[in-house]
Protein backbone atom coordinates (compact mmCIF):
# COMPACT_ATOMS: atom_id res chain seq x y z
CA UNK A 1 0.00 0.00 0.00
CA UNK A 2 1.32 3.46 -0.89
CA UNK A 3 2.42 5.85 1.85
CA UNK A 4 0.17 8.60 3.16
CA UNK A 5 1.14 11.63 0.99
CA UNK A 6 1.68 13.66 4.16
CA UNK A 7 3.99 11.07 5.72
CA UNK A 8 6.70 9.42 3.63
CA UNK A 9 7.84 6.12 5.15
CA UNK A 10 11.59 5.62 5.41
CA UNK A 11 13.23 2.67 3.64
CA UNK A 12 15.90 1.08 5.89
CA UNK A 13 17.67 -0.38 2.85
CA UNK A 14 18.69 2.66 0.84
CA UNK A 15 20.57 2.38 -2.44
CA UNK A 16 22.34 5.04 -4.48
CA UNK A 17 21.49 6.04 -8.01
CA UNK A 18 23.27 8.38 -10.41
CA UNK A 19 21.23 8.63 -13.65
CA UNK A 20 23.05 9.95 -16.70
CA UNK A 21 21.21 12.58 -18.71
CA UNK A 22 22.57 13.43 -22.19
CA UNK A 23 23.90 16.92 -22.98
CA UNK A 24 22.96 18.76 -26.13
CA UNK A 25 22.26 22.46 -26.48
CA UNK A 26 22.65 23.23 -30.17
CA UNK A 27 19.16 23.90 -31.54
CA UNK A 28 18.16 23.68 -35.19
CA UNK A 29 14.75 25.18 -34.47
CA UNK A 30 15.85 28.81 -34.49
CA UNK A 31 17.45 31.30 -36.81
CA UNK A 32 18.65 34.02 -34.45
CA UNK A 33 21.85 35.87 -33.64
CA UNK A 34 24.71 33.83 -32.27
CA UNK A 35 25.02 36.19 -29.27
CA UNK A 36 21.72 34.85 -27.94
CA UNK A 37 23.13 31.31 -28.10
CA UNK A 38 26.43 32.32 -26.52
CA UNK A 39 24.73 34.15 -23.66
CA UNK A 40 26.55 36.06 -20.95
CA UNK A 41 29.32 34.19 -19.14
CA UNK A 42 29.65 35.02 -15.45
CA UNK A 43 31.36 33.00 -12.71
CA UNK A 44 31.75 30.11 -15.12
CA UNK A 45 28.00 29.91 -15.92
CA UNK A 46 26.08 31.03 -19.01
CA UNK A 47 23.11 33.40 -18.59
CA UNK A 48 20.54 34.64 -21.10
CA UNK A 49 21.03 38.00 -22.83
CA UNK A 50 17.54 38.67 -24.20
CA UNK A 51 16.32 40.40 -21.05
CA UNK A 52 18.18 43.53 -20.01
CA UNK A 53 18.12 42.64 -16.32
CA UNK A 54 20.20 40.12 -14.46
CA UNK A 55 18.62 36.69 -14.48
CA UNK A 56 18.98 34.50 -11.41
CA UNK A 57 19.21 31.09 -13.11
CA UNK A 58 21.85 30.24 -15.77
CA UNK A 59 21.02 28.80 -19.18
CA UNK A 60 23.64 26.12 -19.75
CA UNK A 61 24.01 22.36 -20.07
CA UNK A 62 24.22 21.66 -16.34
CA UNK A 63 21.07 23.69 -15.69
CA UNK A 64 19.21 21.95 -18.49
CA UNK A 65 20.11 18.59 -16.93
CA UNK A 66 18.58 19.82 -13.69
CA UNK A 67 15.40 20.86 -15.51
CA UNK A 68 15.13 17.39 -17.01
CA UNK A 69 15.42 15.70 -13.62
CA UNK A 70 12.85 18.08 -12.11
CA UNK A 71 10.45 17.34 -14.97
CA UNK A 72 10.72 13.62 -14.21
CA UNK A 73 10.14 14.18 -10.48
CA UNK A 74 6.84 15.89 -11.27
CA UNK A 75 5.82 13.08 -13.65
CA UNK A 76 6.62 10.33 -11.14
CA UNK A 77 4.65 11.94 -8.32
CA UNK A 78 1.57 12.23 -10.55
CA UNK A 79 2.12 8.86 -12.24
CA UNK A 80 -1.18 7.57 -10.86
CA UNK A 81 -2.95 9.89 -13.30
CA UNK A 82 -3.65 9.03 -16.94
CA UNK A 83 -2.11 12.40 -17.82
CA UNK A 84 0.65 13.33 -15.35
CA UNK A 85 1.73 16.42 -17.34
CA UNK A 86 -0.99 18.75 -16.06
CA UNK A 87 -4.29 18.70 -14.19
CA UNK A 88 -6.27 21.43 -15.96
CA UNK A 89 -9.43 19.92 -17.53
CA UNK A 90 -8.93 21.23 -21.08
CA UNK A 91 -10.56 18.22 -22.74
CA UNK A 92 -9.25 15.87 -25.41
CA UNK A 93 -9.01 18.39 -28.27
CA UNK A 94 -7.19 21.56 -27.21
CA UNK A 95 -6.08 23.83 -30.05
CA UNK A 96 -3.37 26.01 -28.54
CA UNK A 97 -1.14 25.49 -25.49
CA UNK A 98 1.66 27.77 -24.24
CA UNK A 99 4.53 26.72 -21.96
CA UNK A 100 6.17 29.80 -20.41
CA UNK A 101 9.74 29.30 -19.21
CA UNK A 102 9.98 26.08 -21.18
CA UNK A 103 13.66 25.49 -20.30
CA UNK A 104 14.77 22.40 -22.16
CA UNK A 105 11.36 22.16 -23.83
CA UNK A 106 10.59 18.65 -22.56
CA UNK A 107 7.14 19.45 -21.17
CA UNK A 108 6.09 21.17 -24.40
CA UNK A 109 7.35 18.24 -26.49
CA UNK A 110 5.53 15.72 -24.30
CA UNK A 111 2.27 17.68 -24.58
CA UNK A 112 2.74 17.95 -28.35
CA UNK A 113 3.02 14.17 -28.51
CA UNK A 114 -0.11 13.84 -26.37
CA UNK A 115 -2.15 16.18 -28.59
CA UNK A 116 -0.83 15.86 -32.16
CA UNK A 117 -3.63 18.05 -33.55
CA UNK A 118 -2.85 20.96 -31.20
CA UNK A 119 -0.17 23.64 -31.57
CA UNK A 120 2.14 23.70 -28.55
CA UNK A 121 4.45 26.68 -28.03
CA UNK A 122 7.38 26.59 -25.62
CA UNK A 123 8.88 29.99 -24.83
CA UNK A 124 11.98 31.01 -22.92
CA UNK A 125 14.68 33.68 -22.83
CA UNK A 126 17.32 31.24 -24.11
CA UNK A 127 17.02 28.81 -27.04
CA UNK A 128 15.84 25.42 -25.75
CA UNK A 129 18.61 22.83 -26.35
CA UNK A 130 16.89 20.39 -28.68
CA UNK A 131 17.66 19.25 -32.21
CA UNK A 132 14.19 17.89 -33.05
CA UNK A 133 10.61 18.59 -32.02
CA UNK A 134 7.27 17.19 -33.18
CA UNK A 135 5.86 19.20 -36.10
CA UNK A 136 3.16 20.67 -33.85
CA UNK A 137 5.66 21.91 -31.22
CA UNK A 138 7.19 25.36 -31.69
CA UNK A 139 10.04 26.39 -29.39
CA UNK A 140 10.56 30.15 -29.38
CA UNK A 141 12.80 32.76 -27.79
CA UNK A 142 10.77 35.58 -26.26
CA UNK A 143 10.29 37.64 -23.12
CA UNK A 144 6.99 37.16 -21.29
CA UNK A 145 7.22 40.73 -19.98
CA UNK A 146 7.16 42.19 -23.49
CA UNK A 147 4.03 42.55 -25.61
CA UNK A 148 2.53 39.19 -26.54
CA UNK A 149 2.10 38.97 -30.31
CA UNK A 150 0.47 35.54 -30.66
CA UNK A 151 -2.86 35.90 -32.44
CA UNK A 152 -4.54 32.77 -31.13
CA UNK A 153 -6.10 32.46 -27.71
CA UNK A 154 -4.77 29.59 -25.62
CA UNK A 155 -6.62 26.70 -24.01
CA UNK A 156 -3.85 26.31 -21.42
CA UNK A 157 -0.87 28.40 -20.31
CA UNK A 158 1.59 26.39 -18.23
CA UNK A 159 4.50 27.50 -16.03
CA UNK A 160 6.88 25.50 -13.87
CA UNK A 161 9.77 26.25 -11.47
CA UNK A 162 9.74 29.98 -12.14
CA UNK A 163 10.63 31.21 -8.65
CA UNK A 164 12.90 34.25 -8.71
CA UNK A 165 12.04 35.08 -12.32
CA UNK A 166 10.01 38.21 -11.58
CA UNK A 167 9.37 40.81 -8.91
CA UNK A 168 5.79 41.03 -7.52
CA UNK A 169 4.73 43.72 -10.01
CA UNK A 170 6.10 41.64 -12.90
CA UNK A 171 4.30 38.54 -11.65
CA UNK A 172 1.03 40.47 -11.75
CA UNK A 173 1.91 41.59 -15.27
CA UNK A 174 2.57 38.00 -16.37
CA UNK A 175 -0.64 36.68 -14.79
CA UNK A 176 -2.59 39.52 -16.43
CA UNK A 177 -1.06 38.69 -19.84
CA UNK A 178 -1.98 35.05 -19.34
CA UNK A 179 -5.56 36.04 -18.45
CA UNK A 180 -5.86 38.26 -21.52
CA UNK A 181 -4.50 35.62 -23.88
CA UNK A 182 -6.55 32.67 -22.68
CA UNK A 183 -9.84 31.88 -24.36
CA UNK A 184 -12.84 32.27 -22.06
CA UNK A 185 -12.88 29.05 -20.07
CA UNK A 186 -9.16 28.46 -20.66
CA UNK A 187 -6.80 27.42 -17.87
CA UNK A 188 -3.60 28.59 -16.22
CA UNK A 189 -1.44 26.03 -14.40
CA UNK A 190 1.72 26.58 -12.38
CA UNK A 191 3.97 24.16 -10.48
CA UNK A 192 6.58 25.47 -8.06
CA UNK A 193 8.94 23.99 -5.49
CA UNK A 194 10.15 25.64 -2.29
CA UNK A 195 13.92 26.17 -1.93
CA UNK A 196 13.89 25.17 1.76
CA UNK A 197 14.99 21.69 2.83
CA UNK A 198 12.63 20.17 5.40
CA UNK A 199 12.57 17.13 7.64
CA UNK A 200 9.71 15.63 9.67
CA UNK A 201 11.46 13.11 11.92
CA UNK A 202 14.43 15.07 13.34
CA UNK A 203 16.88 12.94 11.36
CA UNK A 204 18.46 16.16 10.06
CA UNK A 205 20.67 17.69 12.80
CA UNK A 206 19.84 21.23 13.84
CA UNK A 207 23.39 22.34 12.97
CA UNK A 208 23.34 20.80 9.48
CA UNK A 209 24.40 23.18 6.75
CA UNK A 210 21.36 21.96 4.79
CA UNK A 211 19.19 24.01 7.13
CA UNK A 212 20.94 27.20 5.97
CA UNK A 213 20.10 26.70 2.30
CA UNK A 214 16.47 27.80 2.30
CA UNK A 215 16.95 30.90 4.49
CA UNK A 216 19.92 31.92 2.35
CA UNK A 217 17.98 31.63 -0.91
CA UNK A 218 14.91 33.38 0.49
CA UNK A 219 16.96 36.25 1.95
CA UNK A 220 18.95 36.73 -1.26
CA UNK A 221 15.79 36.68 -3.36
CA UNK A 222 14.26 39.30 -1.08
CA UNK A 223 17.39 41.48 -1.39
CA UNK A 224 17.33 41.09 -5.18
CA UNK A 225 13.72 42.23 -5.30
CA UNK A 226 12.62 38.85 -6.64
CA UNK A 227 11.16 36.88 -3.77
CA UNK A 228 11.55 33.11 -3.91
CA UNK A 229 8.26 32.44 -2.09
CA UNK A 230 6.20 31.97 -5.27
CA UNK A 231 4.99 28.58 -4.03
CA UNK A 232 3.12 30.31 -1.20
CA UNK A 233 1.89 33.39 -3.09
CA UNK A 234 0.86 32.17 -6.56
CA UNK A 235 -2.58 30.88 -5.58
CA UNK A 236 -3.78 34.21 -4.17
CA UNK A 237 -2.06 36.18 -6.95
CA UNK A 238 -3.81 34.11 -9.62
CA UNK A 239 -7.15 34.51 -7.85
CA UNK A 240 -6.66 38.30 -7.53
CA UNK A 241 -6.24 38.64 -11.30
CA UNK A 242 -9.74 37.25 -11.77
CA UNK A 243 -9.32 33.52 -12.27
CA UNK A 244 -11.99 31.22 -10.85
CA UNK A 245 -12.10 27.55 -9.83
CA UNK A 246 -8.65 27.88 -8.27
CA UNK A 247 -7.32 24.42 -7.35
CA UNK A 248 -4.31 23.74 -5.16
CA UNK A 249 -2.38 20.48 -4.74
CA UNK A 250 0.56 20.14 -2.34
CA UNK A 251 3.44 17.67 -2.66
CA UNK A 252 6.48 16.54 -0.76
CA UNK A 253 9.43 16.02 -3.10
CA UNK A 254 11.86 13.69 -1.24
CA UNK A 255 15.58 14.28 -1.79
CA UNK A 256 17.39 10.94 -1.94
CA UNK A 257 16.28 7.31 -1.97
CA UNK A 258 15.33 7.10 1.70
CA UNK A 259 11.53 6.57 1.20
CA UNK A 260 10.18 3.02 1.35
CA UNK A 261 7.38 3.45 -1.21
CA UNK A 262 8.74 2.83 -4.71
CA UNK A 263 7.12 5.93 -6.21
CA UNK A 264 8.67 8.21 -3.60
CA UNK A 265 11.97 6.36 -3.84
CA UNK A 266 12.14 6.95 -7.59
CA UNK A 267 11.09 10.58 -7.19
CA UNK A 268 13.70 11.04 -4.46
CA UNK A 269 16.43 9.58 -6.64
CA UNK A 270 15.53 11.95 -9.47
CA UNK A 271 15.20 14.92 -7.12
CA UNK A 272 18.64 14.15 -5.69
CA UNK A 273 20.01 14.52 -9.23
CA UNK A 274 17.87 17.62 -9.68
CA UNK A 275 19.64 19.18 -6.70
CA UNK A 276 23.12 17.94 -7.54
CA UNK A 277 22.92 19.44 -11.04
CA UNK A 278 20.98 22.55 -10.04
CA UNK A 279 22.39 23.86 -6.77
CA UNK A 280 25.35 25.85 -8.07
CA UNK A 281 23.18 27.51 -10.70
CA UNK A 282 20.40 28.25 -8.22
CA UNK A 283 22.69 30.09 -5.80
CA UNK A 284 25.68 31.48 -7.77
CA UNK A 285 24.03 34.70 -8.97
CA UNK A 286 22.12 35.25 -5.73
CA UNK A 287 25.06 34.76 -3.38
CA UNK A 288 27.63 36.66 -5.48
CA UNK A 289 25.22 39.61 -5.82
CA UNK A 290 23.26 39.57 -2.56
CA UNK A 291 25.03 37.23 -0.13
CA UNK A 292 25.22 38.20 3.55
CA UNK A 293 26.90 39.99 5.22
CA UNK A 294 28.47 40.97 1.88
CA UNK A 295 28.40 39.43 -1.60
CA UNK A 296 30.23 36.11 -1.70
CA UNK A 297 33.09 35.27 -4.02
CA UNK A 298 32.74 32.56 -6.64
CA UNK A 299 35.07 30.31 -4.62
CA UNK A 300 33.02 30.81 -1.46
CA UNK A 301 29.91 29.70 -3.36
CA UNK A 302 31.70 26.65 -4.77
CA UNK A 303 32.86 25.60 -1.27
CA UNK A 304 29.35 26.12 0.13
CA UNK A 305 27.77 24.04 -2.63
CA UNK A 306 30.34 21.28 -2.08
CA UNK A 307 29.37 21.11 1.60
CA UNK A 308 25.67 21.02 0.73
CA UNK A 309 26.27 18.23 -1.80
CA UNK A 310 28.23 16.20 0.75
CA UNK A 311 25.38 16.34 3.26
CA UNK A 312 22.73 15.60 0.63
CA UNK A 313 24.47 12.26 0.08
CA UNK A 314 23.86 11.19 3.67
CA UNK A 315 21.10 8.51 3.45
CA UNK A 316 20.19 8.92 7.10
CA UNK A 317 18.79 12.41 6.45
CA UNK A 318 15.11 12.01 5.57
CA UNK A 319 14.72 15.31 3.79
CA UNK A 320 12.35 16.77 1.23
CA UNK A 321 11.16 20.06 -0.25
CA UNK A 322 7.59 21.24 -0.51
CA UNK A 323 6.02 21.70 -3.94
CA UNK A 324 2.63 22.97 -5.05
CA UNK A 325 0.55 22.88 -8.20
CA UNK A 326 -2.14 25.51 -8.82
CA UNK A 327 -4.57 25.49 -11.71
CA UNK A 328 -7.43 27.90 -12.36
CA UNK A 329 -9.91 28.86 -15.05
CA UNK A 330 -10.52 32.13 -16.84
CA UNK A 331 -14.24 32.88 -16.43
CA UNK A 332 -16.60 32.97 -19.36
CA UNK A 333 -17.88 36.42 -20.29
CA UNK A 334 -21.23 35.64 -18.68
CA UNK A 335 -19.42 35.08 -15.36
CA UNK A 336 -17.48 38.35 -15.37
CA UNK A 337 -19.40 40.80 -13.23
CA UNK A 338 -17.85 44.15 -14.20
CA UNK A 339 -19.18 47.49 -15.29
CA UNK A 340 -18.17 48.62 -18.80
CA UNK A 341 -16.01 51.44 -17.42
CA UNK A 342 -13.94 48.98 -15.38
CA UNK A 343 -13.45 46.51 -18.21
CA UNK A 344 -10.23 46.49 -20.24
CA UNK A 345 -10.57 47.17 -23.96
CA UNK A 346 -9.97 43.52 -24.89
CA UNK A 347 -12.97 42.48 -22.78
CA UNK A 348 -15.48 45.10 -23.93
CA UNK A 349 -16.05 43.63 -27.37
CA UNK A 350 -19.06 41.35 -27.21
CA UNK A 351 -18.70 37.75 -28.29
CA UNK A 352 -20.06 37.09 -31.79
CA UNK A 353 -23.23 35.04 -32.05
CA UNK A 354 -22.47 31.49 -33.20
UniProtKB/TrEMBL annotation:
Q: What is the name attached to this protein's record?
A: Methyltransferase domain-containing protein
Q: Give the transmembrane region(s).
A: none
What terms describe the molecular function in GO for this protein? Answer: methyltransferase activity
Note the Gene3D superfamilies from the entry: Vaccinia Virus protein VP39
Q: What Pfam families does the database record attribute to this sequence?
A: Methyltransf_23
Q: Which InterPro entries match?
A: SAM-dependent_MTases_sf
Amino acid sequence: MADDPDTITVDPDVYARDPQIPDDWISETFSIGSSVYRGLMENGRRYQTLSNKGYIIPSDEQMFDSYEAGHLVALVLDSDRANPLFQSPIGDNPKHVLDLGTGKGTWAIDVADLFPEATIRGVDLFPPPVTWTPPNCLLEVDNALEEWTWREQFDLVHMRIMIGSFDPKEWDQVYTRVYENLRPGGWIEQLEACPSIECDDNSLPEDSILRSWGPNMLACGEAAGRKCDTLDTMSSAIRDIGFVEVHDKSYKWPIGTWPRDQKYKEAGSLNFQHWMDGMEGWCMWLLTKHGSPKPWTKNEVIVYVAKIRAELKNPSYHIYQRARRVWARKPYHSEVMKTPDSMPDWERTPEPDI
